[in-house]
C-alpha cells in the first residue's frame, strides 16, 4: 500500500514537472525590472520577490525579474510614467500619481469609508476594482492586483494628539490628493503634500511636524527615529497597486499571461496575509522604540467624522456620483453578507 502511494506521488510530481516544462516552452527569454519605493523588509517587497521567483520557476528560468526597492528607479510618479512608456515593467506602490488621468482613484482617500481590511479587499477585487483596472489599462497600466498597505494613522514630533484640538497647527505631510488635503484642513491640521523620497529628512529636520501612513510602512521605514507620538486614527484605508506595463503585458504569449496571473494571485494572497500579520508586530515595535501611542476618544472621532464630509463633497462630485454610488453599494453588500 505504501509503495502504491509512493508511486502515485512520484507520478504526480513527474506530471507536474512535465506540465511546467511544457509551459516553459511557450516562454521567451526576457528580463524585467520590478520597482517600488518600499523597504525590502516590507511585505510588499517580500511579495515582489515571491512573484519574481514564481515567474522564474514557471518559465524554466527564462523570465528574470529584478526587484529594485527604495525608489532606486525614481519616485512613484516617475516609475508609473516609466510603466506607461514601457521603460519599466513592474511596479507596486501608490497609484495617486495617476489621479489626473484616472479621477476615480481619488476615492481611496475618502476618510472612514472602510471599517475593515476585508471590506476593502472585497471592493478592490470586485466591480469597483474592475472599473479602476479598465481605466488604468486605457492609459497604459495593466493591474495585476491590489495589495495591502493598511489603515493610515497620524504621527508627529511635537505633542501627543489625544483630542481634535491637539491637531491644530501641526504641519502634516499627506498624500498628494486634494481630497486628503481638504479633509485634514477641515479638522485643523496644516496639511501639505511632499514626495515620499523627501519625507524622512523633512521629519528629521522638523520641516514637517508629522505625517500619516500605515504602521507597517512607518516601522519598516524607521520613522520611530524621527517621530515621538502616534495617534491610532485609522482614518483612511490605503491600498498598493500591483501592476505591469501594458506594453510588456501585450507582448506576452497567452501561456505567459496565464502563468503571470497565477503568480500575481499567489503574491497578492501572500502580501495581504503578511501585512496583516506584521501590523501588530510593527505597532509593538514602534512602542518598543519609544513612540507614545494614543487614540482619539469616541467623541473626538465623531467630531472628525462630522467635519470632513462638507470639505470633501466637491471632490466626490469630481470623482463621480455614479462611481461613488457603486463603491458604497459594494461596501453595503459586503457588510450585509458579513451579518
End-to-end gap? 47 Å
Which structural class fits the helix and strand makeup? alpha/beta
Count of helical regions = 12
Average pLDDT for all residues = 92
Strand content: 15-25%
**How many beta-strand elements?**
10
List segments where confidence is low: pLDDT < 50 over at least 5 consecutive residues.
1-22
State Rg: 22 Å
Shape: globular
Helices and strands, in order, run as HEHEHEHHEEHEHEHEEHHEHH
Helix content: 40-55%
Written description of the protein model:
The protein contains 12 helices and 10 strands. The protein is α/β, with parallel strands linked by helices and 339 residues long. Strands 1, 2, 3, 4, 5, 6, 7, 8, 9 and 10 form a 10-stranded mixed beta sheet that branches. The longest helix has 35 residues.
Write the layout of secondary structure elements.
Blueprint: H1 2-24, E1 30-36, H2 43-58, E2 63-68, H3 76-85, E3 90-93, H4 117-124, H5 127-137, E4 141-156, E5 171-174, H6 178-186, E6 190-193, H7 196-204, E7 210-214, H8 215-220, E8 229-231, E9 237-245, H9 246-250, H10 254-288, E10 292-294, H11 298-319, H12 321-338
Parallel strand pairs: 1-2, 1-3, 5-6, 5-7, 8-10
Antiparallel strand pairs: 3-9, 4-7, 4-8, 4-9
Helix pairs in contact: 2-10, 4-12, 6-11
List keywords for this structure.
339 residues, alpha/beta, ten-stranded mixed β-sheet, disordered N terminus
Nutshell version of this structure?
This protein is of the alpha/beta class and 339 residues long. Helices cover 51% and strands 18% of the residues.
Amino acid at each position: 500500500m505504501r509503495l502504491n502511494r509512493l508511486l502515485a506521488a512520484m507520478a504526480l510530481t513527474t506530471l507536474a514537472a512535465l506540465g511546467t516544462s511544457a509551459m516553459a516552452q511557450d516562454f521567451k527569454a526576457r528580463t524585467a525590472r520590478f520597482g517600488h519605493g518600499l523597504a525590502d523588509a516590507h511585505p510588499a517587497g517580500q511579495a515582489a520577490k515571491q512573484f519574481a521567483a514564481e515567474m522564474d520557476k514557471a518559465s524554466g528560468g527564462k523570465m528574470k525579474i529584478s526587484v529594485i526597492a527604495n525608489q532606486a528607479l525614481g519616485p512613484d510618479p516617475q516609475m508609473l510614467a516609466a510603466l506607461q512608456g514601457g521603460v519599466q515593467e513592474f511596479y507596486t506602490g501608490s497609484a495617486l500619481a495617476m489621479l489626473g488621468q484616472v479621477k476615480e482613484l481619488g476615492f481611496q482617500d475618502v476618510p472612514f469609508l472602510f471599517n475593515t481590511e476585508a471590506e476593502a479587499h472585497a471592493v478592490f477585487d470586485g466591480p469597483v476594482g474592475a472599473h479602476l483596472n479598465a481605466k488604468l489599462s486605457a492609459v497604459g497600466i495593466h493591474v495585476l492586483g491590489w495589495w495591502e498597505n493598511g489603515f493610515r494613522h497620524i504621527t508627529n514630533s511635537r505633542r501627543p494628539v489625544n483630542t481634535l484640538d491637539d491637531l491644530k497647527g501641526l504641519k502634516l505631510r499627506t498624500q498628494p490628493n486634494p481630497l486628503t488635503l481638504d479633509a485634514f484642513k477641515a479638522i485643523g491640521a496644516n496639511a501639505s503634500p511632499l514626495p515620499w523620497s523627501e519625507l524622512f529628512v523633512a521629519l528629521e529636520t522638523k520641516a514637517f511636524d508629522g505625517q500619516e501612513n500605515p504602521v507597517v510602512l512607518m516601522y519598516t521605514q524607521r520613522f520611530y527615529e524621527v517621530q515621538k507620538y502616534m495617534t491610532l486614527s485609522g482614518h483612511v484605508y490605503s491600498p498598493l497597486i500591483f501592476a505591469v506595463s501594458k506594453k510588456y503585458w501585450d507582448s506576452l504569449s497567452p501561456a505567459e499571461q496565464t502563468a503571470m496571473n497565477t503568480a500575481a494571485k499567489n503574491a497578492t494572497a501572500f502580501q495581504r496575509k503578511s501585512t496583516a500579520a506584521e501590523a501588530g508586530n510593527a505597532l509593538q515595535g514602534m512602542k518598543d522604540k519609544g513612540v507614545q501611542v494614543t487614540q482619539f476618544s469616541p467623541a473626538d472621532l465623531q467630531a472628525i467624522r462630522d467635519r470632513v464630509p462638507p470639505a470633501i463633497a466637491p471632490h466626490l462630485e469630481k470623482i463621480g456620483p455614479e462611481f461613488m454610488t457603486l463603491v458604497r453599494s459594494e461596501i453595503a453588500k459586503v457588510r450585509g453578507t458579513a451579518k
